[in-house]
Predict the structure of GNAT family N-acetyltransferase.
Amino acid sequence: MDYRLRPASPGDDHWQLAIYASTRADELALTNWPSAQREAFVMQQHQAQQQHYRRHFPASICHLILMADEVAGRLWVDTRPDRLHVLDITLLPGWRGQGLGTRCLCALMDEAAVTGRHVSIQVEIHNPARRLYERLGFLPECEPQGLYQPMLRPAPTVQPEECLP
């Protein structure tokens, strides 16, 4: 399963919105809001997230994850002196559960290892993706912060078996 990353551009806003919306679909399905209200809510939350990332992580880069020429998701990373911090990794529903997220994270860990950096991410405490991060060697970095658990994969040790060629 070959993929490639491409920096997102302003012309990709519709993809960015679709990717974000896919993360809120289950939650919004539990509401009795009319579709126009759900769409307005998702748009507002999406814009708030984009502004937050750009304001607080100005050196970060958002990449679209592409399979052939099809958008499969996004990987948004903030490069820091001591670590690569994953702001967001999200796959569209049709691409989930196929190992693509694991491959993206393994490539990021390989990139970090070359320069002796950690990889970090914050994950919602009850997010099933947390199991993936733990399998890949991420550990709780500190106590949970509200609904989120900061996690850290320490700079190079042994590569997780899932990442071995």
Summary: Strands lie at 4-7, 61-67, 70-79, 83-91, 118-124, 139-140, 148-153. The chain has four helices and seven strands. The mean pLDDT is 93. The first strand starts at residue 4 and ends at 7.
